[in-house]
Amino acid sequence: MKKKNPESAVLELRDVVKTYEMGNQKVHALSGVSLDIGENEYVAIMGPSGSGKSTLMNIIGCLDVPTSGSYSLGGEAVANKDESDLAEIRNRMIGFVFQTFNLIPRADILHNVELPLIYGGMAKAERRVRAERALEQVGLADRMRHKPNELSGGQRQRVAIARALVFNPSIILADEPTGNLDSRTGDEIMKMFDDLHADGQTIILVTHEDHIAAHAHRSIRLRDGKIESDILSSDELLSNSYLGPVPAEYEVGAANVG
Ligand SMILES: Nc1ncnc2c1ncn2[C@@H]1O[C@H](COP(=O)(O)OP(=O)(O)O)[C@@H](O)[C@H]1O
Ligand SMILES: [Mg+2]
Question: Which residues form the domain of 106?
């Protein structure tokens, strides 16, 4: 169980701009995003197609760097790092879960989960123990020698979650993690994220579905590369675990004005 400390920001973005050059045209994917996410937060990033969700996730996940603005992750400035430094930070800090699972088809699932540790240079015996533990955590201890195509979609996504957990990352980043699953299996996967959050994990997920976002305790909506709204769920506001500023929408009396 990780220790919960909602006051300490795991990540801070300040005035982050991301501009893509397409020939002589500029595409403003993010136009000034400022955002703090604290330890053990459970955040959904929403917004229409093209609003900048993937760009924001890529920056948070250190897969890309801002054109301007600052980004710090775990107290470390990452905006100006080179690719090898970014890869190191990414390995240490971020566990990714993708819509399409992104497993290696020819490798058994134990090997799939071990793979990030191989890149991380960990000794074989420890790798094995860690990968087995992560697979136990997602309820797949009895499937370790199976290949991905011998598993259901939900089981494959659980392998991907085990792979994301194996480094004990500061943040799980999930981009439409239930997008390729039927609704019952999607609910099972969301239950797994809920349990990880209850155990102290910080989770950020992109989704366009309200019922998926409802699992999160905070929902950030993007539009045209800007934050349109950033709202805490009512139960999070009622608990005293969140010590940050209360959004204007929730201030006492705001709904009764006029
Ligand atoms: N590699 C890229 N090159 C050029 N334009 C891009 C690139 N990636 C994203 N964009 C543009 O940036 C905007 C935001 O894209 P994206 O972050 O993928 O949005 P979302 O994930 O919300 O659909 C879109 O207009 C998209 O076309
Ligand atoms: Mg996208």
Answer: 9-250
